[in-house]
Amino acid sequence: MxxxxxxxxxxxxxxxxxxxxxxxxxxxxxxxxxxxxxxESSLLSNVGSxxxxxxxxxxxxxxxxxxxxxxxxxxxxxxxxxxVGGAQPLWxxxxxxxxxxxxxxxxxxxxxxxxxxxxxxxxKIVTGDTKVVERGKADxxxxxxxxxxxxxxxxxxxxxxxxxxxxxxVNGYLGxxxxxxxxxxxxxxxxxxxxxxxxxxxxxxxxxxEVCPNVRCARDATRGGLSSVLxxxxxxxxxxxxxxxxLVKLRPEVRGICEILGxxxxxxxNEGALxxxxxxxxxxxxxxxxxxxxxGAESVVIGEVIELDSKPRVEMRTELGGTRIVDMLLGEQxxxxx
Length: 338
Description:
The chain has helices at residues 14-24, 70-83, 104-121, 176-184, 202-211, 225-237, 252-261, 283-291, and strands at 50-58, 64-65, 68-69, 88-99, 124-133, 141-151, 167-170, 217-220, 239-244, 274-278, 300-308, 313-317, 323-325.
């Protein structure tokens, strides 16, 4: 048996059928070889429910890194995009662009990782596609996922709902994913014990919504990091936000890597960082709920909404006692990070 992917595996014939049966069908929930998934859920029968639909592509380099790989990144990234809109993620699709010569063993490992992450999140991968391109026409493997979820009646998370005095909550340490992928590239001879923070956030979000249905809005701080998320919300809500540098959690390794390379950790990508805007009078029960499960054990308030109807901006009280503007990321600190 050929242990590498060939162009025949993308040709629609027997080789492609064998690849699907060998690697994809046993691990995904497609239910057969139909050209579409047929979906049912009792959640759709609730009057006022809304469908949430998202899509994302993943081109991370390297494909494997401490604590994760492109497969679990693709599942968690799409699940989390649904989650921060208040949706219950239910179904995913997964499409693969595979370069000729790619290892079947590595492909199987990545698909197993996707299955594991989907099981952890409680979602099903129900349909997909594979294409094989000539050697040199892609960089090993690209994955595109789309996700569908259901937003329950009456729930509407939006930056437009942010109010003066709301507190900004993050579920833990920042920058782990960006720093982990960077060190895995071996470009700078950096070594650390860091692992990606990649994880599904839907169970954590469910805990929050159970105790505080009127959370204002939520975001997952992926590309562009915390800074970009806060600036997006400030612009949408016309708010002035203030965060405290002393309250932002960074591991010593992340801080050290940023100092060596001249990077700002507020712009580093995360794949398991949940950012919430919470009414001040409900913060205690929200933090208790978040800290009750591992994904939120390190949750902390890092700032607040100072005023509305002002020039939208994000400011930070520094460790030295001054303040500085936290701008949105210009350009890209680290390419191919997710």
